[in-house]
Specification:
With 273 residues, this protein is α/β, with parallel strands linked by helices. The chain contains 8 helices and 7 strands; from the N terminus they run βαβαβαβααβαβααβ. The protein has helices spanning 24-35, 47-57, 89-100, 129-135, 137-149, 178-198, 221-233, 243-255, and strands spanning 15-19, 39-44, 76-80, 110-113, 161-167, 202-208, 263-266. It has a 7-stranded parallel sheet with strand order 3-2-1-4-5-6-7, sandwiched between helices. β1, α1 and β2 form a beta-alpha-beta unit. The chain starts with 14 loop residues before the first strand and ends in a 7-residue tail after the last strand. The model has no long low-confidence stretch (mean pLDDT 90).
Amino acid sequence: MSRPLRFISKLQDRRVLVLGGTSGIGFAVAEAALEHGAQVIVSSSNEDKVSNAIERLRKVACPLEPNHSASGGARVTGTTCNVGDPATLNANLKALLEFATTGRTQLLDHVVYTVGDDIVVATYRESTVEDLQSRQFVRLTAPAILGGLLPDYVNKAPTSSYTLTSSTTAVKPPPLLTSYTAQTVAVQGLARGLAVELKPIRVNAIEMGLTPTEMHEPWPQEMRDFVFSKYREATLTGSLGDVGDAAEPYLFCMKNAYITGTSIVSDGGNSLV
């Protein structure tokens, strides 16, 4: 009789909700969770992106399943959820959680928040009160409100988790990104606070270095070349992040039932240079 799989099976049949799971790092997390045998729900504000992501994820194989070449289809669903509108945020998040748990009949095991909006390059001298309030909404306010809703929708156990997304700008802020830096620092504080408030559900944050995704595609080519080149030079690995590698710390936070209230750094050593 073969020995049971103790490590790669930790996510098998677990229910994982990935907000922002239709592109970039979020999609990679969803793909990796499916490959580990999880049941995955993805969301974004765009219906076409949700449909496209589900179609792509249904082709993901799960080696833990007997017929693993076609196992992803039954394990992935998705729906839209707009987290950018203050007037509807609470209702939208509740609707998403109701969908993800089939009306609270199938509670979640893990929730991952990777949603981001455009990063504004500006000095504080150029910012208004309204600017600063709006810039923090998607990356800080929305995941905070979501955290407050999770106790009704997540299994209350140390095997459950909520993972947020921060950035290494929190420890190494570049010029003209002070408001973004403040958000990333606050996300780490949010993770620590929620870890205490939501216990035994674990809460952590990922400090991500520069990882090219679809979010960067609208940038002019000259701008991308300049920023990416400068970042490569400022790492120990001489490289940019890769979405496949970026998914790994999220998996770690889901699988390790003894880590909570902390931040995991994935930045190629940028914070040391």
